[in-house]
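Run log, item B.
One chain of 208 residues. Sequence copied directly from the ordering sheet:
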Amino acid sequence: MTQDDLLTALHHLMNSEVHTIVNDRIAAFHAFQTQVPDAVFHELCYCILTANCKADICLTIQHKLSHTFSTGNTNDIEQGLRHYHYRFPPRAAHITTARRHKETLLPTLHRLQGEDRRRFLVDTIPGLGYKEASHFLRNIGFDDYAIIDTHILEILDQHGIVKRPHTLTPKRYLKIETILRDLANDTGLTLAELDLYLWHMDTGTIVK
């Protein structure tokens, strides 16, 4: 398969019922721009949890433990994660550390631009690498960041666009993001929209 095959498949999805699902999901992401700090913080917790874990499991935990994330200490959160058989319960410490920034997080992100915005998250919030920081930014309405996970890499590899790397360093991440940005421009999509279409292409569904 080639890049032209991928573009054809994307245009097919963009003219299918998936288009409505993507638009609804993007609208939900943009709504976070006016949400209270707790809602933005809970989305950050979800993205902290998703590294090397299935999105649907993390989504369930986010809903079940949202109050604990906001009010519990590290032990409370860790016990909650263990109760729901989460793979990495010590990430509870990441959540309590991130909570210190709950009130200032969204205003700070609005003051920053481009790569400075993502770099702030990677440097400030434990447990966030480039992928998780990009995921969080996309999920709260910032459209210009690529979420380069195994699904996206698999599609790019299958179509001869990027050979799947053994490790994804920041330098490689940014290089692949540039390729995805060009692909988004070719289809008239934002990186946020492109990610949802590619996810659906690989999994047959859209979580978030």
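Observations after the first pass:
- The chain has two domains: 3-29+146-203, 36-139.
- The chain has a mean pLDDT of 95.
Flagged for discussion on Thursday.
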